[in-house]
Amino acid sequence: MKTLLRITGRTLLPFLLIFASCSDDDDGMDPPPEVTVNIVEAAQATADLSSLVAALQKADESTNNDLITALSGEGPFTVFAPTNQAFADLLAQLDGFDSLDDFSSQELQDLLAVILTYHMVPGAAAMSSDLSDGQTLTTLQGSSLTVSTTGGVFIDDATDTDAQVTTANVETSNGVVHIIDKVLLPQAILDELADIILVPITDLAMGNENLENLVAALVAADGDLPTVLRGDGPFTVLAPTDAAFETFLDGASLGDIPTEVLTQVLLNHVISGEVYSTDLQGLGSGYTSTLATGAGDENMSIFFDTSDGVTFNGVSSVVTPDVKALNGVVHVVDAVIDLPNIVDHAVANPSLTSLVAALTDGGNTTFTDLLSNAEEEFTVFAPVNDAFAAFTNPNSNDINAILANHVVVGASAFSTGLMNSYVNTAAEFDTDENLSLYINTDDGVTLNGVSTVVIADIVATNGVIHAVDAVIDLPTVVTFAVADPNFSTLVQALTELTPSTDFVSVLSAQNGDGADPFTVFAPTNAAFEALPAIPGETDLIPILQHHVVAGANVRSGDLSDGISATTLEGDDITINLPGTDDNIADVTDGAGNTGIGIDAVDVQAINGVIHVLDGVLIPDTTN
Question: Which stretches make up the FAS1 domain (predicted)?
């Protein structure tokens, strides 16, 4: 047990005698000026001690206290004076206290006086050189402080965090002041204010006998999570009960779970920022992000629903909300929230029940097996319930093919990385001939010109979900022409400029209902702009027909140098490989024009394929 040392005026007598003998020497040096301000006056003159002065004044509002008068008396005193930031930190630690004015009752003012007198050591003006490692000092409050001089001067109170002396030896007429970076708290205050003193999240969990498994898991995880959750934060922690962990482990032990997996599961219960139950209830339902890492190294999404209490990912309910901590808030939950894959997220969101029903209709497991694959990444455009309710399937397409047309395999495409482009979906025209999906980001994110992303970037372990407002039917070649703004002039030519021919109906045929499938060589807007003028309807119709090969789905892999094909107009076009300059291939049209470039290939529709041209093909007008 450490020896209790009480510094008295007698202790300082040898120092005073030495100082006096030195002053008597006639060495030509002027004696130091006499200190005339007392401790209170020194504090009042120090900007960074204004909160201490205010605290003394607030405590003295109680008729039981007269601290300012005491510290203005003869002393001597040694005072450890907390800075303004130290008082701000204390107020942050006290639930419901925003300023010193909140010490508004006599009872609270007396408690404040207890805190303040714990910073005062009566009977001595102890300079830093008088303090030694392990020394104990009895305060005016009655409890003791312990000094540590390792790596500086530190003062140990009843808490786990020491105060450091940041400015030592401020001499006054009635003592000495040492400025410290923390308000010291005696055990009496910790006991009296136990219900309102906030502690870091880790300490809160350690003090809860129903969260022992959580604490053990935090210790077992990578990254020293107990220290992380003692940090500044703020954090919102969903804290599973011991029973929740027992259910999750299902007879296994924490050691049976790979450390990296356990770490991610725990981080999936931590949200950056303070989120109270009232905040969630104000939103109703939606997504936020946890500190776990999902596909693409993005933060994992978590779905909350307040329609019946507060639930997360449809599997875990809050049983004790809004437990305040010094660095955030804790919600105790009744189940461990495992890391969600694409299917888990779809099942959890009640706005996606129609999608889930369609995916699993008749016991179908094709999609759930595919989208649960942990070895692959997916981008899923998930129609909400209203989208399914509005969808009439006008072409009677296979619903499984339609659903597959909402899935991109092999990539997690986040909204920040999307641009006007084509991607391939899991739907197929034929084996290994996947349908294309046109993404446009000019105004939000739209898909094939018919469906808009309404909730972006729902992050799962194996990909990302974007909720959309319309079902994306299987596209025809007309779908892509209309959706892609690079083909707006072509669409105008096929419709407004050629009203006598129903090109849209012809090129929308599918399943053998017309001349499908089609291979369409589609000129861009720039290709049309290169013409001297767009011809009138009589001449334009055969030009447009000269861009379409009927009855064949000719993809780039089917092309070879010198291959020819007969167009709807009747003339042949010829493909030359390789192309010149940056062209993938060159086309020679019916009129013999060469070097017309194919710039993009294999935009695959359900009734044909599009290859993009940088010029307009002209048929032979002499035959």
Answer: 36-184, 198-337, 339-472, 474-617
Would you tell me how many other CB atoms lie within 10 Å of the CB of residue 131? Answer: 19
- What does residue 597 show for φ and ψ, rounded to 5 degrees? -90, 140
As a whole number of angstroms, the distance between CA 569 and CA 548 comes to 8
Determine the Cα–Cα distance for residues 445 and 406; give it in Å rounded to an integer. Answer: 14
Q: Are 311 and 285 in contact (CB under 8 A)?
A: no
Burial 551-584 (b: 16+ CB within 10 A, else e): eebbbeeebeeeeebebbbebbbbbbeebeeebb
- 595: closest CA among 610, 573, 611? 573
Q: Give me the chain's average pLDDT, please.
A: 93
How much is the pLDDT for 32? 59
* β-bridge partners, 518: 550, 608
**pLDDT attached to residue 64:** 96
146: enclosing H helix or E strand: strand 144-148
Whole-number Cα distances in Å, 1 to 4, 40, 492: 9, 35, 94
Which residues does 394 contact at the CB level (< 8 Å), separation at least 6?
A: 473
Instruction: For helices 50-59 and 106-117, give the axis angle rounded to 10 degrees.
Output: 130
| Interatomic CA distance for residues 157 and 90, integer angstroms | 14
How far are the Cα atoms of 39, 45, 419, 420, 452 from residue 443, in angstroms, in the given order? 66, 60, 11, 11, 10
Average pLDDT, stretch 242-247? Answer: 97
Task: Return the closest-CA partner of residue 589 out of 526, 623, 531, 543.
Answer: 543
pLDDT of 138-176, one tens digit each?
999 999 999 999 999 999 999 988 999 999 999 999 999
- Could you identify the residue written with the tokens 């047309």? 405
Hey, how many other C-beta atoms are within 10 angstroms of the C-beta on 388? 16
Angle between helix axes 212-220 and 259-267 (nearest 10 degrees) is 130
Tokens representing 533 are: 């003028």
DSSP 576-604: ESSPSTT-SEEEE-TT----EEEEEEEEE
Burial code of 60-87, b = ≥16 C-beta within 10 A, e = fewer?
bebeebebbebbebebbbbbbbbbeebb
Please tell me the pTM assigned to this model.
Answer: 0.84
Measure the CA–CA gap between 351 and 200, rounded to whole angstroms.
Answer: 37
Beta strands 328-333 and 564-566, pairing class: unpaired
Cα end-to-end span (Å), the chain: 114
pLDDT at 31: 57
> Sheet holding 154-156: strands in order across?
4-5, 136-138, 144-148, 154-156, 163-172, 175-180, 77-82, 120-122
DSSP states along 71-102 = HTSS--EEEEEE-HHHHHHHHHHBTT--SGGG
Residue 160: its pLDDT value, please? 84
CA dist., res. 519 & res. 610, Å (int): 6
> DSSP H helical segments within 84-224, as ranges?
84-93, 106-117, 187-192, 201-206, 212-220
pLDDT at residue 22 above 50? no
| Confidence at residue 33, expressed as pLDDT on a 0 to 100 scale | 65
Pairing, β 120-122 against β 77-82: antiparallel
With residue 280 as reference, give the H or E element that holds it: helix 277-283
Kindly state the average pLDDT of the residues 25-37: 63
**275-293 residues labelled b (16+ CB within 10 A) or e (exposed):** bebebbeeeebebbbbbbb
Backbone angles phi, psi at 185, to 5 degrees: -125, 125
For β-strands 378-383 and 407-409, DSSP reports them as antiparallel
Helix (H) or strand (E) holding 177: strand 175-180
